[in-house]
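Late entry, evening session. Most of the bench is empty. Finally got around to the prediction I had been postponing all week. Sequence below, unchanged from the version circulated by S.P.
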Amino acid sequence: MTRGERLRPVSLGPPPRHQRRGRLFAAVCMAVTLLPVLVVAVLLGALVQSGAGLDEPTVVLHHLAEGGAQQLLRSVVGSLWLVSMCACVAVPLGVGAALQLEGPRRPVRSALALNIASLAGVPSVLFGLVGLELFVRALHLGHSMVTAALTLALVVLPIVAVAARSALRAVPDELREAGYALGATPWQVTRQVVLPAALPGILSGTILAIARAFGEAAPLLLVAGMTMSGSSTALGDPRGVLPLHVLALLVEPRTAASAEALVGVVVLLGTLLVLSGWAMHLRHRHERRRDGPWFEDPR
């Protein structure tokens, strides 16, 4: 014990210098948290100021009543369908890759983990080029919804794998050892112990992946063939999704198109908030169920 520790009572808490550092760190964290909200607000304000160009709000409703609302609704349904197909491919593969990487430590698995972590930061337009060459030209799937879903699966699969691996590594080893002590096989321990404990973290990674897939437009521009004439849509038309619908409206010189694009951006952000809120509700419910009491008193 130093002389300063003997002179300072324990009940006084940390020194004032440490308190100031703690308050400064909390302020920085709050500013970083509010920064994305501020950026979204600025972008919406710029869009309303430069893109709408309407004298009265009723003009927007008039243009939507003429047929823009139906196209907007179809684009939302198309985006939900595309994201559902993408999740059906990316989530099982991402969780399976995380389970494989969290096995016994080997040099090959370490190299695979490094490559997957690197792919999570690759720009999505590069995945669009891969999807164009692989799915459209090599596999002859055409500019279809299946091609778009597989391309988006390539984009979000590393995110799901990295998040699922972090969630699996956060599970205490005592749970695994307890399962093995009871005579369970590795598959039983993984299915009945590890995955339920890591489910909240896996859901968080899936939320981020779905949110990114829902708002992606760069890879879809390449695989949907928007700039190509006579594109094949035998398996479905990927051009009818919300990000591409908004982008097509923004490049039109009509004032009505600018108004519909503004409404489309609001619907896009609102849909993302609803999906994220619903998924976070499921995550918190699983956390309460996991952290709840092991048994209830019958009295």
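Two things to note before I forget:
Residues 58-101 form the longest helix (44 residues).
The two ends are 50 Å apart (CA to CA).
Will write this up properly tomorrow.
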